[in-house]
């Protein structure tokens, strides 16, 4: 039995902040887990260091399910993003260890490959429609089969998803939260034109996606979904905040545009009604924020009963360790839909050397034992943590709104 002998948290900032858990065993192998919670990183680092790690020492590293249940039920305080991110980090690291000891990539332990690779989508964003389409064309040339389109909206100073950077979008910036502004009316008028022009320019062989980022009411979302029906979106994401799962009934009554939700979910309970009532088509919960591979498999199994497929969150604030875990998971489940893929910066990739690769629009986790990701701790130590917040958002009259 491989015993856990030590565990520690590594906080580093190769281009952006990442929190990584490293678990060591008496058999000489170690495992890595991503524990990054954008804008609240140190809360998870403390949760792990001060409260979780002392409970891990001496345990059997093979007992993944038991340790998961121990941390979930044993905390007494269940769920929540900080708790579930910490549990996810432990879970990922233990799967990594199990794979290394078995001499197999994690997807083999999960049942083996159920497909050639995981279809991914990239982010095309521009200050206007022409620039957004140009970016999307670059993705097509690189072999992508799916692209998310976000464009600056005329009359709005800032728009979610749009940055000056080519191929990157990094919203966590300020040492205090940046303030952005929102106008539903301007946005709603503009988006159908974006997709009409995109279809004219890009054709119909590419999947197009769009993220509303929690900005609409259910009835507004119903209308936008209906207005976008002619352009056959792959999905409309986070159309309305989802604390009230029943809100999606209203959207569903008005549109056949497929709906995706759940990047901020941290447990199966956040999605239970959405899945059981078939109110969504894609569940976006991801490995790092929703309790690890162990819990996400449970979510996917429930979703599969209702023909809901996965579409895991995969922005740059999810580290390469999470990206690898998501690919092992996605490759192995029956109801994989798509995986978000925002490429990491060169600094990030250098700190986290990895076996996963991209080819013809699909990603594969590679065949190294475990997750196939390492951390260069010497390099990591050169990048000091710096506080960075996600923006806040206000309506034009100053009312605090959803970012
Ligand atoms: O706002 O990852 O679909 N992707 C997104 C992201 C999220 C950030 C939050 O940390 O919505 O841009
Ligand atoms: Co999103």
Strand and helix map with partners:
Blueprint: E1 4-12, E2 18-25, E3 30-34, H1 41-56, H2 64-74, H3 81-102, H4 106-109, E4 118-126, H5 129-141, E5 146-151, E6 179-182, H6 184-202, E7 207-211, H7 218-228, E8 235-237, H8 247-254, E9 259-261, H9 272-276, E10 282-283, H10 292-305, E11 309-312, H11 320-332, E12 336-340, H12 346-351, E13 357-359, E14 362-364, H13 377-380, E15 392-395, E16 400-401
The protein binds (2S,3R,4R)-2,3,4,5-tetrahydroxy-N-oxo-pentanamide and cobalt (II) ion.
The site of (2S,3R,4R)-2,3,4,5-tetrahydroxy-N-oxo-pentanamide has 10 residues, from loops.
Structure notes:
With 403 residues, the chain is α/β, with parallel strands linked by helices. The protein folds into 2 domains: 4-105, Enolase-like, N-terminal domain (Enolase-like, domain 1), CATH 3.30.390; 109-367, Enolase-like C-terminal domain (TIM Barrel, Alpha-Beta Barrel). Helices cover 36% and strands 19% of the residues. The chain has 13 helices and 16 strands. It has helices at residues 41-56, 64-74, 81-102, 106-109, 129-141, 184-202, 218-228, 247-254, 272-276, 292-305, 320-332, 346-351, 377-380; strands at 4-12, 18-25, 30-34, 118-126, 146-151, 179-182, 207-211, 235-237, 259-261, 282-283, 309-312, 336-340, 357-359, 362-364, 392-395, 400-401. The protein has an 8-stranded parallel beta barrel, surrounded by 4 helices. The longest helix has 22 residues, at 81-102. The radius of gyration is 20 Å and the shape is globular. The chain starts with a strand and ends with a strand. Residues 38, 171, 211, 213, 263, 313, 315, 317, 340, 390 line the site of (2S,3R,4R)-2,3,4,5-tetrahydroxy-N-oxo-pentanamide (EZ4).
């Amino acid at each position: 039995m491989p015993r856990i002998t030590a565990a520690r948290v590594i906080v580093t900032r190769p281009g952006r902040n990442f929190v990584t858990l490293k678990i060591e065993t008496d058999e000489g192998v170690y495992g890595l887990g991503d524990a990054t919670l954008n804008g609240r990183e140190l809360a998870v680092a403390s949760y792990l260091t001060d409260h979780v790690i002392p409970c891990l020492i001496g345990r059997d590293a093979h007992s993944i399910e038991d340790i998961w249940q121990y941390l979930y039920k044993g905390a007494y305080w269940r769920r929540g993003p900080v708790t579930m991110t910490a549990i996810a980090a432990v879970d990922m690291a233990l799967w990594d260890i199990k794979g290394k000891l078995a001499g197999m990539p994690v997807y083999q332990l999960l049942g083996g490959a159920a497909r050639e690779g995981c279809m991914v989508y990239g982010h095309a964003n521009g200050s206007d429609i022409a620039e957004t389409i140009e970016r999307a064309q670059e993705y097509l040339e690189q072999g992508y089969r799916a692209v998310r389109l976000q464009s600056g909206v005329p009359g709005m100073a800032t728009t979610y998803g749009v940055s000056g950077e080519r191929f990157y979008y990094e919203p966590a910036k300020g040492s205090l939260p940046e303030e952005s502004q929102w106008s539903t009316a301007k946005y709603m008028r503009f988006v159908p034109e974006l997709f009409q022009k995109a279809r004219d320019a890009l054709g119909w062989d590419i999947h197009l996606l769009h993220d509303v980022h929690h900005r609409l009411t259910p009835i507004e979302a119903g209308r936008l979904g209906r207005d976008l029906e002619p352009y056959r979106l792959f999905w409309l994401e986070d159309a309305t905040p989802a604390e009230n799962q029943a809100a999606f009934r209203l959207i569903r009554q008005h549109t056949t545009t497929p709906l995706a939700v759940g990047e901020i979910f941290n447990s199966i309970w956040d999605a239970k009604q959405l899945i059981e009532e078939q109110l969504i088509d894609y569940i976006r919960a991801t490995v790092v924020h929703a309790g690890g591979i162990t819990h996400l498999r449970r979510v996917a199994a429930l979703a599969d009963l209702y023909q809901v497929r996965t579409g895991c969150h995969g922005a740059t604030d999810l580290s390469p360790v999470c990206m690898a875990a998501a690919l092992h998971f996605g490759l192995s489940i029956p109801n994989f839909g798509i995986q978000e893929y925002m490429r990491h910066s060169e600094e990030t990739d250098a700190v986290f050397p990895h076996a996963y690769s991209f080819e013809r629009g699909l990603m594969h986790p590679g065949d190294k034992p475990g997750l196939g990701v390492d951390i260069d701790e010497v390099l990591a130590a050169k990048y000091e943590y710096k506080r960075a917040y996600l923006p806040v958002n206000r309506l034009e009259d100053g009312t605090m709104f959803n970012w």
